[in-house]
Amino acid sequence: MSGPPPAVAAVRVAVRRALRALPPGPVLVACSGGADSLALAAATAFEARAADRRAGLVTVDHGLHPGSAAVAARVVTLGHDLGLDPVTAVRVAVGRTGGPEAAARTARYAALEAAAAEAGAVAVLLAHTLDDQAETVLLGLARGSGTRSLAGMPPTRGLFHRPLLGLARATVRRACADEDLPVWEDPANADDRFARVRVRRDVLPLLESALGPGIAAALARTARAARDDADALDALAAGADPFTGGSAAVADLRPAPAALRRRWLRAAALAVGCPASALGAGHVDALEALVLDWRGQGPVHLPGGAEGTRRCGRLVLTPPLD
């Protein structure tokens, strides 16, 4: 008897490995109705049945286009047809902090965490692919925010697991087509106001044309190496952080390796309320200048209303005023 088509088999194997690494308990698939997440949902339904594990689906309706509620309802029907349980649609309100992409992402992840808690799920599976990882690395490179920004998306972070991160988008979408799943194309994926769309449509194909095939895989390998380095440096920085109560002695900060000092400065800024999505390398540069290039300059204004100042040989970060 012949097995499934190669692309379907590849997606199922990736999901099988992810499920085997999880503790017992239900899992949820985050599904937008796009090809990648539908392929993930179908593979999870198949592998969960084989493993006698309960698997459900949650779709998040961001309310950002007129037909969003109908799309969510269609995804719910597909989830039931695949045999997933529970299947839910969650409507969220998208704010403005950090721009439209970041605000939608914040609302989506909060909704997924709440759905997982309600279902008692041990994991939420996300459908990011190797190509998504490559795009994330290029966007991080453009921001110039250091090793962590090049580290891309981790395969696992807390509840969230990305079993398809090692598979090309073409493979995942071939699996979706092979299973004849009805795909919804998010109009935002063709909106060139978004940097990720421009990277996907223009930058990666140009790199492939100029440098040869395999660029996405190479960028994904870069992300893995950068993540290993960043994790090691973050652990060192956390173990020797000189900040207490929002301040640190300049004498402790100045001689430290730049990789540690800049991590301390970023962590201190986050601790006083700077939004992570708005805190950039330029802000850390300005704080570092108070340590290394002190000329009596005034306070550094940080995102969210926090400030950094140098007083009596100490760098002091203060939270926003109420």
UniProtKB/TrEMBL annotation:
GO molecular function annotations of the record: tRNA(Ile)-lysidine synthase activity
Residue stretches making up the tRNA(Ile)-lysidine synthase substrate-binding domain: 250-308
Entry-linked CDD domains: TilS_N
Domain tRNA(Ile)-lysidine/2-thiocytidine synthase N-terminal: 27-201
InterPro entries: Rossmann-like_a/b/a_fold, TilS/TtcA_N, tRNA_Ile_lys_synt, tRNA_Ile_lys_synt_N, tRNA_Ile_lys_synt_subst-bd
EC number: 6.3.4.19
Coiled-coil stretches: none
Keywords of the record: ATP-binding, Cytoplasm, Ligase, Nucleotide-binding, tRNA processing
PANTHER family in the record: TRNA(ILE)-LYSIDINE SYNTHASE-RELATED
UniProt function note: Ligates lysine onto the cytidine present at position 34 of the AUA codon-specific tRNA(Ile) that contains the anticodon CAU, in an ATP-dependent manner. Cytidine is converted to lysidine, thus changing the amino acid specificity of the tRNA from methionine to isoleucine.
Name of protein: tRNA(Ile)-lysidine synthase
Species: Kineococcus halophytocola
